[in-house]
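Data deposition worksheet. Section B asks for the primary sequence of the deposited chain exactly as it was used as input, without tags or linkers unless they were present during the calculation. Section C holds the resulting structure in token form. Section D is free text for depositor observations; keep each observation to a single sentence. Incomplete worksheets are returned to the depositor.
Section A, Depositor: J.P.
Section B:
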Amino acid sequence: MLVADDDQLTLMGGGGDYFMPWHWHDGLMIFLPRTGAVDFRDETRKSGAWLSEDRFVAVRGGLAHQTAAARSGHRHLAIYTTDEQFARIEARLGSLSRVRARLDLPAFFSMTPEIRSLQSLCQAAADPDDVANRTARGHVAAALLINCLSQIERSEQLSAARAEGHGDALVSEIKSFIRQNVANDLPLDVIADFFGLQAACHAFVS
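Section C:
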């Protein structure tokens, strides 16, 4: 748990064994992949959607959904805000009726550089014993939530990516992995092993 205050509950999760079976929440959930890909399913569609680090999903309260990691390197943040908390935010920011109107169904939106940066800052300040980090984390998480709400209000919704588009998501994951490990020696076989691509790598080399 990163933040629990008057406006939101923010959790950090991940790992290859991450799996959250069918459930629903009392209020809005914003699910933001940090690295890796997630298979997202909800009660309004027949097939699953593919979530990678280029997009996030917003799910209104009361809609059943399920999330599962596709790879061991998966990391994410999940922000939850109840109807009462959302009303308090709206009282400070002004009407969020457009946000409400766009969330009848689970909706996907592009990550912006600002959202990515705030997400990174939240996760970087995850030390529970550091008082300064805990204080800063609350402010950063609030800014992250507001930026997500702004993106929901102003931007066009993305289509739900399908698992058949796994190749694009995988390329995005590999790029992220290389960026995070740029200071380390990264032989091709290490990358292939991490992403389960040994056979493809051997075929490419030969």
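Section D:
The first strand starts at residue 3 and ends at 4.
The beta strands are 3-4, 9-14, 19-23, 28-35, 38-42, 49-51, 55-59, 65-69, 75-81, 107-110.
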